[in-house]
């Protein structure tokens, strides 16, 4: 039974000594290690072959050359939706070839018609809700990191990276780019693709005649999702635990070590800060990146005076919590092998968050702005089959307006494979003040460092997943409880998902380059989900879930806790529906205004407990008009609140879509505290004039920040992985609708293989 005790001097969770903690981790290690050798059976991995090509192919999307028939195709795809017990009726065939320079891929996707769903002609789409074929290559056979290439029936391409075994949607990063070519063809009862992927675009072990491979396909006409290696329905479709093989016949691929790619850019723009009353400022920039292949698995990335003005703005949110909101990294330079640096700890207890480098926040608008980077270097990748390393060094310019000196950032990370898919890793992060811009508050200290170790668990059949870690920070002039540790263990089988979680961040833990929104708290939770597969043609899955979570502060006992109950339905037409209710108890040590509008704060030193209930719904994304809604209502601190959020999408196939994202929350608190309506609306208009010219206009009205943001981005891909961008940004104060700042930026990049 949960309870709260704020006057007791004896902590319910006493501070754990480091010796005891290390002993606990040591005792857990054999169990976690043995768990990955689970002897339970699985389907035998399928196999395919790649044949050596001695003559060229015509890249027209139609695999009619005789050479394709010489290889053993990857076929016999299994359904993973709406069921996972049968071979899919409309099959897929994938053929492979290679020579000294390229990997060649052809595929035929059989269909019953040509009424395809193609949301737009924009590259790097997500797979859900449209027709497409995705290829997953894991050349190092670690089942942890993979390279993705994909196409749809109109020849729109995508490439991405998969991290951490592909266990969640956050492990899929489509912002990654590389140079390759592909074309599509629509036949009478099939659509097909042909691809030419240079080996210079891949990292793989030199001379290995076998790679791991899997593929998945979304077919909207038969309403099926299928995979080459059979994947149970309770697993994510891109899970790397389930991989087949490609055997190279007639010789193994030779790694293109020593290859050099140079990506220069030139840009310029005009800005004006109306609130500060400054004059119009004109600026110009030149710089660039370089990629150097070292051996078969390492890559050296260099950047000089990088500019990220073309990166799409973050989707704003209404934040009624006491803590910072997490926004993912989108900048290209930080993405390749990003998991080597960013996957230590947990997402909300992370020693390294790359957005701390070169990005700060405009305190007026809440919008992220650039802090110039002088240069950067990153060495990352595979040393051999068992070891990965990552070294990063970046130097930033001072930003006196935002109170930032010139900092140097250094990160060193390593990972050792353990067993089939598990790993043991270590990280060291150093932030060094290279200027004399310090202040009496200690905000800009001379240095801040974090060191730590992680053990990541992933069994062969993906039934057990988890991690445990121990980190410590070191800061100039600081000492005390500066450790963090955590553990999560998840058990998955066909009808049950069970998760245990705990984390503790010491009050004096300081990871300035990390993401740690809450310190001095021990958090623990248990979650259980039941999954049933009813004998009903309309319902694919259903079942309840429950989560219990508690927050404990040393010397205070349990301060916050919550229970959440949900029931989920997933339908054969891809609709989803969830109902839920929960109770949350929060103890405020200090006054807090949940509206974040500078209203009278709720008094501290007391408990607030409240019940809430809600429903969520997602419609069939294959339709031209689709929607999702979340509605919740109930008590909120010492009053009430009512909210509705979601999105409406209209698809004008294949030239684009209008996505209207919205959130409305009415907070009703007794006098003298805030009673206000917070409204956020963010229409996004996506137009694709061709497969190389895209226009995105993003409008965001956020009542919580009294800000209206307009961001319009025109992109012209005039050559492979080479772009021209024109970006217009405008911010208005919605109180009086006065202009805050305005900018227009132009930038051109060119990808040059040396």
Structure characteristics:
mainly beta; 754 residues; 24-stranded antiparallel beta barrel; Immunoglobulin-like; 13-stranded mixed beta sheet; disordered N terminus; globular
Strand content: over 45%
The N- to C-terminal Cα distance equals 66 Å
**How would the global form be characterised?**
globular
What fold name stands as the CATH topology of one domain? Answer: Immunoglobulin-like
Q: What is the number of beta strands?
A: 40
Structural class: mainly beta
**What portion of residues is helical?**
under 10%
Main sheet: strands, sense, barrel: 24 strands, antiparallel, barrel
Topology of this structure?
Layout: H1 18-35, E1 47-52, E2 78-81, E3 92-98, E4 102-110, E5 132-138, E6 146-151, E7 157-162, E8 172-173, E9 181-186, E10 190-198, E11 210-219, E12 224-227, E13 244-249, E14 260-273, E15 281-294, E16 298-304, H2 339-342, E17 359-361, E18 368-370, E19 373-382, E20 387-396, E21 407-418, E22 422-433, E23 447-458, E24 464-475, E25 483-493, E26 496-505, E27 521-530, E28 539-553, E29 557-571, E30 576-588, E31 606-618, E32 625-636, E33 639-652, E34 656-668, E35 675-688, E36 693-702, E37 707-719, E38 722-733, E39 738-749, E40 752-753
Parallel strand pairs: 1-3, 1-13
Antiparallel strand pairs: 2-12, 3-4, 4-10, 5-6, 5-11, 6-7, 7-8, 9-10, 11-12, 11-13, 14-15, 14-39, 14-40, 15-16, 16-19, 17-18, 19-20, 20-21, 21-22, 22-23, 23-24, 24-25, 25-26, 26-27, 27-28, 28-29, 29-30, 30-31, 31-32, 32-33, 33-34, 34-35, 35-36, 36-37, 37-38, 38-39
């Amino acid at each position: 039974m949960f309870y709260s005790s704020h006057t007791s001097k004896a902590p319910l969770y006493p501070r754990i000594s480091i010796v005891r903690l290390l002993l606990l981790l040591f005792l857990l290690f054999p169990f976690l290690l043995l768990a990955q050798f689970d002897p339970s059976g699985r389907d035998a991995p399928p196999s395919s072959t790649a044949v050596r090509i001695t003559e060229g192919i015509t890249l027209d999307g139609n695999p009619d050359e005789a050479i394709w028939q010489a290889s053993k195709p990857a076929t016999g795809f299994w359904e993973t939706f709406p069921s996972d017990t049968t071979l899919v009726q409309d099959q897929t065939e994938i053929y492979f070839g290679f020579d000294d320079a390229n990997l060649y891929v052809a595929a035929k996707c059989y269909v019953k018609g040509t009424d395809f769903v193609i949301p737009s002609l924009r590259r790097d789409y997500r797979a859900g809700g449209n027709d497409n074929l995705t290829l997953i290559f894991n050349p190092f056979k670690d089942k942890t990191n993979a390279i993705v290439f994909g196409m749809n029936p109109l020849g729109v391409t995508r490439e991405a990276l998969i991290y951490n075994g592909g266990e969640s949607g956050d492990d899929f990063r489509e912002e990654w780019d590389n140079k390759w070519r592909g074309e599509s063809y629509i036949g009478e009862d099939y659509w097909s693709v042909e691809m030419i992927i240079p080996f210079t675009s891949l990292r793989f072990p030199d001379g290995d005649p076998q790679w791991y491979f899997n593929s998945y396909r979304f077919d909207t006409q038969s309403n099926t999702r299928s995979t080459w290696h059979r994947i149970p329905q309770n697993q994510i479709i891109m899970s790397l635990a389930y991989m087949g093989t490609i055997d190279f016949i007639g010789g193994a691929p030779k790694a293109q070590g020593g290859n050099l790619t140079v990506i220069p850019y030139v840009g310029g723009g005009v800005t004006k800060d109306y609130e500060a009353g400054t004059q119009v400022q004109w600026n110009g920039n030149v710089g660039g990146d370089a990629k150097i292949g070292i051996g078969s698995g390492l890559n050296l990335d260099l950047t000089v005076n990088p500019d990220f003005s073309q990166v799409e703005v973050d989707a704003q949110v209404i934040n009624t919590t006491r803590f910072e909101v997490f926004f993912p990294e989108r900048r290209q330079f930080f993405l390749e092998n990003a998991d080597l640096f960013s996957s230590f700890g947990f997402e909300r207890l992370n020693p390294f968050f790359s957005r701390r480098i070169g990005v700060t926040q405009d305190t007026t608008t809440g919008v992220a702005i650039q802090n110039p980077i002088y240069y950067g270097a990153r060495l990352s990748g595979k040393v051999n089959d068992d070891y990965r390393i990552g070294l990063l060094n970046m130097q930033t310019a001072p930003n006196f307006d935002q109170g930032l000196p010139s900092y140097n950032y250094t990160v060193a990370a390593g990972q050792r494979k353990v067993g089939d898919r598990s790993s043991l890793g270590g990280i060291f992060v150093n932030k060094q003040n290279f200027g004399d811009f310090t202040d009496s508050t200690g905000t800009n200290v001379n240095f801040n460092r974090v060191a730590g170790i992680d053990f990541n668990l992933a069994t062969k059949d993906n039934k057990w997943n988890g991690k445990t870690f121990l980190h410590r920070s070191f800061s100039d002039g600081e000492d005390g409880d500066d450790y963090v540790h955590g553990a999560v263990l998840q058990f998955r089988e066909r009808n049950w998902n069970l998760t245990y979680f705990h984390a503790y961040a010491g009050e004096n833990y300081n990871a300035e380059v990390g993401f740690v929104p809450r310190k001095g708290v021990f958090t623990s939770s248990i979650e259980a989900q039941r999954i049933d597969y009813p004998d009903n043609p309309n319902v694919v899955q259903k079942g309840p879930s429950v989560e219990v979570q508690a927050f404990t502060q040393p010397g205070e006992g349990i301060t916050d806790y919550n229970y959440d109950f949900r029931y989920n339905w997933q339908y054969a037409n891809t609709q989803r529906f969830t109902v839920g209710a929960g109770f949350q108890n929060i103890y405020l040590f200090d006054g807090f205004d949940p509206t974040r509008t500078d209203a009278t704060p709720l008094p501290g030193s007391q408990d607030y407990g409240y019940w809430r209930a809600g429903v969520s719904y997602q419609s069939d994304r294959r339709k031209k008009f689709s929607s999702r809604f979340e509605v919740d209502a109930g008590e909120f601190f010492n009053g009430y609140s009512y909210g509705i959020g979601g999105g409406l999408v209209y698809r004008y196939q294949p030239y684009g879509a209008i996505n209207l994202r919205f959130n409305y929350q009415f907070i009703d608190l007794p006098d003298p505290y805030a009673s206000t309506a917070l409204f956020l609306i963010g229409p996004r208009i996506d137009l694709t004039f061709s497969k190389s010219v895209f226009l995105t206009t993003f409008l965001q009205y956020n009542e919580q920040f009294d800000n209206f943001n307009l961001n319009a981005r025109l992109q012209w891909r005039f050559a492979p992985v080479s772009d021209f961008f024109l970006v217009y940004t405008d911010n208005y104060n919605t109180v009086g609708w006065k202009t805050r700042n305005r900018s227009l930026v132009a930038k051109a990049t060119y990808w040059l293989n040396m």
